[in-house]
Design goal:
By secondary structure, the chain is α+β, with helices and mostly antiparallel strands. Helices cover about 35% and strands about 15% of the residues. Strand 1 and strand 2 form a beta hairpin. The N and C termini lie far apart (about 45 Å).
Length: about 190
């Protein structure tokens, strides 16, 4: 039935106990394509649990049981689900605002290890920098920003700040002719 609060994201999911907000749940008649939220979140290096109205984040680097307000954690889950399908498709400012992720919320999620803030306007999933390094390692060296943009399947709006981030991290180096080269293999 349309508008049901049932969550059919995986067979073991118990709809009344599902931690995912009702706007993320689907049923078979929903026009939205079902996304297996449990798989997307569990495939990352962290897990989220709802406890006492707060979402707890476990196994995030050296952070143990970091807590975020439930609304922020729910927005981050949606964002991470989007990024799972396209890791370098950083949301624009309107999408972040629509999700309720302002600079403070993004900073809190970044501190918890849930987001990688490349710049004030570019937010990616944790590990996207290492993934970018692996993708760029397959390019003929040196490479142009356009080569990187195409290999990363992203826009120039994301590619340039990401390349600058990788330059600062010592993964890539910008050459005098504006091409770049990989300095060291990417690490997780």
């Amino acid at each position: 039935m349309k508008g049901s609060t049932a969550c059919n994201c995986e067979p073991s999911c118990k709809p009344k106990a599902c931690e995912y907000p009702s706007w993320e749940r689907h049923d078979e008649t929903s026009s939205a394509s079902p996304i297996n939220h449990h798989h997307l979140i569990r495939s990352a290096d962290f897990s989220l649990r709802l406890r006492d109205g707060l979402v707890q984040v476990s196994n995030v680097g050296t952070v143990s049981d970091a807590q975020l307000p439930a609304a922020v954690a729910a927005a981050v889950k949606i964002l991470l689900a989007d990024l799972a399908a396209a890791p370098f498709a950083s949301p624009d400012a309107d999408r972040l605002r629509h999700l309720g992720l302002d600079l403070r919320a993004i900073a809190a999620a970044e501190r918890a290890g849930l987001l990688l803030r490349v710049s004030d306007q570019i937010v990616l999933a944790p590990g996207a920098d290492a993934l970018a390094g692996r993708v760029l390692a397959d390019l003929p060296q040196p490479f142009t920003a356009a080569d990187a943009r195409q290999a990363l399947q992203t826009t120039r709006r994301v590619a340039i700040p990401l390349l600058e981030f990788l330059d600062r991290a010592g993964v890539t180096e910008r050459l005098p002719d504006d091409r770049r080269r990989l300095l060291r293999p990417p690490t997780e």
